[in-house]
Model the fold of this input.
Amino acid sequence: DVKVTQSSRYLVKRTGEKVFLECVQDMDHENMFWYRQDPGLGLRLIYFSYDVKMKEKGDIPEGYSVSREKKERFSLILESASTNQTSMYLCASSSLRLAGGYEQYFGPGTRLTVT
Amino acid sequence: KNQVEQSPQSLIILEGKNCTLQCNYTVSPFSNLRWYKQDTGRGPVSLTIMTFSENTKSNGRYTATLDADTKQSSLHITASQLSDSASYICVVSVPLRYALNFGKGTSLLVTP
Done:
């Protein structure tokens, strides 16, 4: 079974702090994704990566950056956390370069609260 | 405008009853359509995936249908159980693109 793990289930940070969210997948997938999920808005893509050191902006990249130094690990970075970044963050991975043809496997999510 | 619309937004049913969730999309061209189940506080888990040529797919008590001509899909849950209480998300993908188009989900509550 595919397993996608995220470093924390719950996280509380202060405004202005630098925040790192880590995601690891164990199925050698090429593609990895970061989403945020908010009530009434559904899942929105922040960034994705289709290969090591490669990244593409999603729909809402502002205020975020990512890092993919190893194939199995994809990190989301909030350079200076703000209260409007309080949300559920979901990581996902999928195989093959054409992600549309194959399903994405999601991690359990990290609920981040910025105070 | 969201290209994937789900209805109803929320639904409450009695345990043992059947229900049907709807998904209408305008995404084009179309690659495939997925239904995900998301328990509260957890990540989404895939229930079914259908390509353009498929019009029905089952996974236990879950049956998804697809009408690519009218761009409509439905998810039918038979003999509902308390554990079916979750959010159900319809996701449509486009060929040669990484990004998926997500519906906002239908929140289902199954009561005893």
Observations:
- The CA atoms of residues 16 and 80 of chain B lie 5 Å apart.
- Chain B touches chain A at residues 2, 31-32, 34, 36, 41-46, 49, 89, 93-100, 102-105 (CB under 8 Å).
- The two ends of chain B are 37 Å apart (CA to CA).
- Chain B has a mean pLDDT of 92.
